[in-house]
Amino acid sequence: MSNNQIVPKDPQDEKILYPEFNKLKERNRGLKTLLSIGGWNFGTVRFTTMLSTFSNRERFVSSVIALLRTHGFDGLDLFFLYPGLRGSPARDRWTFVFLLEELLQAFKNEAQLTMRPRLLLSAAVSGDPHVVQKAYEARLLGRFAALSGERRSAGLMISMSHMPSRGRSGLAMMMPSASVTRHFS
User: Fold this and answer.
1) Which CATH homologous superfamily contains domain 31-174?
2) Are 33 and 70 in contact (CB under 8 A)?
3) pLDDT value of position 177
4) Is residue 133 scored above 70 in pLDDT?
5) Which percentage of the chain shows pLDDT scores above 70?
6) DSSP secondary structure, the chain, as one string
7) What pTM value is reported for the model?
């Protein structure tokens, strides 16, 4: 991310990595590819800056749609570790939710205008209940995620680590009323 826009990590990504990665769709017509941004080494500063104002988020959202469509990706994976932690201000918990709402709305609008399939959105979140409690507005994220496994109806897919010792995973641990039908052993 540079100047609140999503950009390739390396100039060769656009020429080699993205096309080669998306060639996998030729072997599996049902495959959906998502471009991920973030991760531990990415840090929090660029996310915090981008999240800080509506105009910054708007610029990011526009750049995401353009990059995904240009390179044939089917969606975006946000890997922000972690809103409100690791030097990220507490307000990032809320502005992260705003970003998700804005991305989903922009993806819906773009799909209607272009008559193309709506871009997908996923977010990798922690499976640790202590991190979830401090880093995410779990009840608000629950509006987006179909925790019952009904991913087709979900606007946002949320992935998280499973903690077998707890019997429930990630956001479900923070949402006792969540309808989680999958049990892992």
Assistant:
1) Glycosidases (3.20.20.80)
2) no
3) 40
4) yes
5) 76
6) -BTTB---SSHHIIIIIHHHHHTHHHH-TT---EEEEE-GGG-SHHHHHHHTSHHHHHHHHHHHHHHHHHHT--EEEEE-S-TTSTT--TTHHHHHHHHHHHHHHHHHHHHHHHTSPPPEEEEEE-S-HHHHHHH--HHHHHHH--TTS-GGG-SSEEEE-B-GGGSSBHHHHH-TT--------
7) 0.78
